[in-house]
EngB-type G domain-containing protein (Xanthoceras sorbifolium), 552 residues
Amino acid sequence: MGISTGVKTSDGASLRHKLSKRLKFSSGKSKKSKEENTKSLSREKDYKSYKKENGGQMNIKSSKKDKDFVKGREGSDGEVRGNGRPKPMNFDRKRKRIYAEQDMGGGATIDDGAEARNKKNLFKKGHNRVKCDSVKEKSGDKSRSIWVSSKLKDAASKTKNASHKLKDAAESAEVSNTKWRGKVKQSDRVDSGLNGSLKKHTKSNSDSNKNLNASQYKFPDASPSKSFKKTVQYKKGSNDSEVLDEQPKKKKRVIRIDPYDISNKRLDDDLVIDESAKEKKKDLEKDAEMSKNAQFRAIQPSPSILSFVEDNLLGRRRSIEIRRAGYNIELSAPLDNIPLSTSSERERIEENIFRNKLAFFAAAKVSSSFPAPDLPEIAFAGRSNVGKSSLLNALTRQWGVVRTSDKPGLTQTINFFNLGTKVCLVDLPGYGFAYAKEEVKDAWEELVKEYVSTRVGLKRVCLLIDTKWGMKPRDHELINLMERSQTKYQIVLTKTDTVFPMDVARRAMQIEESLKANKSIVEPVMMVSSKSGAGIRSLRTVLAKIARFAKV
Ligand SMILES: Nc1nc2c(ncn2[C@@H]2O[C@H](COP(=O)(O)OP(=O)(O)OP(=O)(O)O)[C@@H](O)[C@H]2O)c(=O)[nH]1
Ligand SMILES: [Mg+2]
């Protein structure tokens, strides 16, 4: 054998020999393989001569053996080794497996002389090749595949045990399939790595097997479980998520608190205190209201007021009642016009002065910007949203000349409107509640007070009071001011259509009684509704007299 003779030579010669041997070995064909080829050729010759000797008459068994022999020779060069005699394939495989198992286990080898050693050496090297080839060539061979898979199965079972989370059989089967595929590929890699290590090292088979085992865990490329681990991890992760999904979800207890349910509250709880305090406050307020309402209902209106309310259809009325009285409810402010009238034109207004066009000509935020007092002025004052601007439109029957809004505080300046050439109507900003800053509202109030107390040519102030709510402290303030400044003022109840007729009369009576002692007040209290038009004609008549006789 080339290897053994090479070792026995002297140092220099052995080095050269080793070098040449290595070069030959790395070139892919060793001296040994050449000898093997020669041997196999001689064996083929022997076989042919043997065939001739038997006269080509071979029994089925021998022919099968021969076929196996030929097949084995023609196949991998690791299949047939030894004494040159053709051997049955199965026997040879069995023996090789025994050797392989012994070598893999690192146990004792069979030593049957030089031939046996040669066999063993050949097998050792051949085993690795066989294993490599077996995977490459016999991937379709089930028996060989099982041999490979048993190892892989061990590794797989280890990993499987480590995973601990593969649950059902179907999933594990799926995972093992993945492992299997990964392992077959991995075994190719391991074997190729092993062949490479054989080229580099001249260690024993047991060492190489150790390397094999070690390489499975040391080198990431050669590690059979890298991709497999990944697969397992992936599966594991997916299983985890599945497991989590499968776990019965804890239902969150949603406690809905009823804010009005105080059955579970302690008596000293804030909520109870608040609630009870609120209730007490409400009761007190209710009592006060009751007393006010009772006082109000106790008012007995004068016969003149009652007849005025009934004649002008003041208060909340049903439409059928208005229709029966002969008014056309299709018109705006129908009660303002003459009975059975179909026209809303201002030409039908009984007072000529109010037939004139209403024309805006000045607005003042401060007293210095007041226009010159050329005409007698009639001003409309009152709290915000009481209906001042609406009344101007209703009196002149010119809807939209003066802007109105349901939002308190729309009119923020003193607006001057000429009604023809004889009189000027002045729309004042409201006081009291309004969507404006306190300082702004104070400024409006001061402006109004200044206007009503100092304005030359101001002949009448119509102080508008909401029929529903009556007089408020701010109204009293302005009345006191006008009393001091001797400005003539007349109370006009607005929005009479929002309350019952009797309440309209009561409110009028209440105000008359409360302001009886005042000197600057002009009686009677007027009652109007810009919406229904009730009482507008009466107010026109009163105001037309002022315009007719007033002089600046
Ligand atoms: N039901 C009813 N609503 C009225 C009457 N007069 C006015 N209104 C409504 O009351 C609201 C306020 O009317 P305005 O004329 O703007 O009141 P204002 O006093 O000028 O308000 P400010 O300019 O903010 O001071 C509007 O939505 C009107 O439609 C009425 O006689 N009856
Ligand atoms: Mg207004």
About this structure: The chain is about 55% helix and 10% strand. Residues 388-389, 410-411, 427 surround magnesium ion (ligand 2) (CB under 6 Å). The chain has a mean pLDDT of 68. The longest strand covers residues 458-466.
